[in-house]
Amino acid sequence: MSETDVHGEAVDWESEDEDSDDSEEQEEGYTSPSQPPSSWNFDKDRHLVYLQMMYELLPHHYQSQEINRLTLAHFIISGLHFLGATDRVDKDVVAKWVLSFQAFPSNRASLKEGEFYGFYGSRSSQFPIDENGDLTHNNSHLASTYCALAILKVIGHDLSTIDSESLLLSMKNLQQDDGSFMPTHTGGETDLRFVYCAAAISDMLGDWSGMDKEKAKNYILNCQSYDGGFGLIPGSESHGGGTYCAIASLRLMGFIGADLLSNDSSSSILDPSLLLNWSLQRQASDGGFQGRTNKRSDTCYAFWIGAVLKLIGGDAFIDKIALRQFLLSCQSKYGGFSKYPGALPDLYHSYYGYTAFSFLEEPGLSPLCPELGLPLLTALGI
Amino acid sequence: MHGRPRKAYKPEEEAASAAKAAKLRALQSQFMSNHHNKIYTKEAVDLSTKLLEINPEAYTAWNYRKLAVEDKLSRIESDPDLIKTILDEELRVVESALSQNFKSYGAWHHRKWVLSKGHSSVGNELQLLNKFQKLDTRNFHAWNYRRFVVELTKRSEQDELKYTDDMIGSDFSNYSAWHNRSVLLSSLLARKADGFLPNKKIPDEYKLVQNAIFTDEDDQSGWFYHLWLLDQTVNVETPLLTSSWPSHGSRISLYAGCSNGSFSKLTTFGSESGYFPLVLNFDQAVGGVSSSTVTIDTELKGNEDLVWEPVSKKNSHVSCVWVARLKYISSEPCFGKEYKVKVKIGNSPGIVSSRGCNFSASYEFVFTAHVHDTVEESSQEGIVSWTDGFDIWDAESKDLNALTTLDRSNAQMDSKWRQEAIAEEIDLFRELPDSKIGKLTLARLLMAKAMISDDAVKGVHYNEILELYKDLMALDSSHYQYYKDVHSVALLRKVTSSTEDLSGHLFRCRNMNNSVCLRLNNLSLSRIASVEKLLFVQMLDLSHNELHSTEGLGGMQLLSCLNLSHNRIRSFSALDSLRHLKQLRVLDVSHNHIGEHSVDTTRYLCSSPLFNSEWTQDEVGRQMPTLVTKYWDAYFVLRDLNLKQLDITGNVIAGDVFSSFVLRVVPKLVWLDGKKLEI
């Protein structure tokens, strides 16, 4: 099983999106001049070739990511949408495939005590129903659920047709007393990533009955550090991914508006100027964004931090020319983006490279919906 | 140093990797079957170990192991040795998974789960962590886990502080260590641990961070920590009352009738409603201001159950500024009398800052209200002109003193060590050769000094601050707007820092009964500040600045005439804070950028007023849904105002259609764009 295709059975996981520090491919300090960036323009055609290739056949490097197959599919399919190539995806097949991962209680009327019925990340975490029609192991996961809904939304599947009652009702089981969320009911670390997943899921389904917004808000506010950024859990160091999850969730829940910086900051629920300060200082001297102070610039934080700045109305302060230059230095000659300049591309950094270029308003790319991390769909909202 | 990859691939490994994949697939299906059938034999559990050694992210396998452990534990009698053996095996698997992938959320979580079972020896954990943290000093999983272990083992925060000493000592770029230091210190200072009094400890910390800053000026770690220290030095957590209108000891004259054009003295107020605002300004946003936390003692009738409202957005229950409206004209004749009004704040608890700190020191102030029996005729429905007829205000400044001097008695802050610490820092940073961050820090320090020192010395500092920000605007153009904003704040602090400075901006308006007007025009202001010193202002000229929004003006509850012409307002939404100004009659927003940019569509995504049925329920919304839809941002502001005069020319939005819309929304309007309306 060295290679597998998206629709097949197999491998893989990425630790959701936030901790980006996990591309497998590069070597220590690998900035070899033998791999120059493909060009100093956004090379849309090569990116299309790259995603098309991934759509058909995933390289074996992704085998450790099997559990997150839906996530990888989301990167590919939503990525194609950013590139304006939705026609390369067979929507019906994809919708059917994605929906096949949804978990249901054996008896619709009675949800099993404390369980969550969302989407599985892949076949390997999906168990067959036993002879009693019962689901022995239900491993549905909040991040996979976010990715499943994201794919469906992006391919234009009508989300109102999804049977979301048990999903939302059971999502309540994942919320903890402190307001945070567990990713699966069988246990797992609770942190801002899953608060964000829950908020995005509620937003996409247009139904907030599955979470206590007030509790979630309080948890988020407890995660703001003295420097203005947000850590993934209260008391932890500010982190680009954590900060994105915090701000995007608050935005989705309607606690902050696009005018956070320009309006009424005195009664704001968080400290917007410190947040602006911290976020802007994540742009390093090479033009790229780092996830934490004194770390290397990394493609994906162009999105995580860029989107935060966009969401609070501070994106005008970004040095966009320098950011573009940095991103282009991470563009692979094979298409796709790498984490650092000169490294090999991977799906995760490619997708967030596309979102970053969309954020920079690259011509020919779909505009960005920063709070969902997806292309802005015209049918959305209005 | 940074961004350690967890695994490196070499081309020759490719083939081996393919073989491994095939093995993995076989393992996986066997594992799935075990899990499904709840098989927890040694062979089955070993299989999950193998799987996790290959792929530490397989959370399903971690969850299976938890079930397996529970199963084993349920089968043995409470034999501590056996329990320990079982749990130690889990710790071993986690350790080996972590050496495969240091950043595996699942593995770290499993370790926490095992430890929380309570039978394992936690003593080894810190040693293990020290080993891991030497390899990757920034790994945030390790740092989070460290905090978890410390809490579990009740290791002292002092010992942990020493650990950050070591980590910072060996590499002061280690921001994670600085972060942990701030968390530990906050806790130690908050609970006043032995040797951790702020006046002793914070000056020490300045010395520590100076070493880092002056060794490598380009490193952000130290700067952030420095900023945190400055915040600890300047800010007091408990909320304070910074000002009020009327102010303590002041004497105000209240007339019946419209105040438009009748406020020749600063202390005169008139309103056709027969109410005057009582305004409280706090140094930070607070909630819980009510008739039970703020009591009023006065003979003015009809003020028994005051309603306190926060000056903030809808649905927000916190604000820096709170207002109640006191009745001074009642059915009973009470004209020509003086009334004492005593206001007591915080007698009973309930006023709480948004950070959760209580307004603890109760405070009271008294003012006198002179209610006049003459009804000031709203002399004319005359147009207010901003263009000429201004004379320098020549009244004695003691009049002004009473309005702006704040009673500092409630500022219970032991300020000596704070001032000394800041003064030392200032001296140090004046020595630092020119650098952007050095200049910015110096400006911040000077601003902090101004905030906590006496009024007398302020002027000099403000000039230095303004110069520093000007330099920065020139040196660092990519952050121009930020410097511009803080420059505006400093400038307004300077203007309001003394009565001399302030009176230089006060004018008499000859065409309007010698009304007093505060003119802050042509100052290239990009934001508003120091509103707490300007609560008394009724006529304000902010024209020819660079304002994008009116944020902050909502606190100026007496404001009746406002000139915002020739600014950079882009939409009516930016005027949202004006909705709180019940006295506002004259508004000039001519020559701005309203309508130039289509309304930001992201607004529709989060809280579109079009989804909100609110507007369809009112009269205008029903009668002219198309116009309301088109101009919803204008509608939401204008319908809450009681304007008599509006100037909108020189904006893209202006035109016949918009004018007809305005007339419907603001029925009492008399003057539009300089022309009297035929009614």
How does this structure look, described?
Chain A has 382 residues and is mainly α. Chain A has a single domain (3-32, 42-379), classed as Glycosyltransferase (Alpha/alpha barrel), CATH 1.50.10.20. Helices cover 36% and strands 1% of the residues of chain A. Chain A is built from twelve helices and two strands, in the order H-H-H-H-H-H-H-H-H-H-H-H-E-E. Chain A has helices at 44-56, 69-82, 91-99, 142-154, 165-171, 192-205, 213-222, 240-252, 272-280, 299-312, 320-329, 347-359; strands spanning 368-369, 374-375. In chain A, strands 1-2 form a two-stranded antiparallel ribbon. In chain A, strand 1 (368-369) and strand 2 (374-375) form a beta hairpin. In chain A, helix 6 packs parallel to helix 8 (240-252) and helix 10 packs parallel to helix 12 (347-359). Chain B is 43% helix and 14% strand. In chain B, strand 18 (671-672) and strand 19 form a beta hairpin. Chain B has 679 residues and is α/β, with parallel strands linked by helices. The longest helix of chain B is centred in the N-terminal third of the chain and has 24 residues, at 13-36. In chain B, the strands form three sheets. Chain B has a nine-stranded mixed sheet, with no helix packed on it. In chain B, strands 1, 4, 6, 7 and 9 form a five-stranded antiparallel sheet that branches. Chain B has a five-stranded mixed sheet with strand order 3-2-10-8-5, with no helix packed on it. The model of chain B is unreliable at 1-8 and 600-612 (pLDDT under 50). In chain B, 44% of the residues are buried. The chains are: A mainly alpha (382), B alpha/beta (679). Chains A and B meet through helix 9 of A and helix 1, helix 3, helix 5, helix 7 and helix 9 of B.
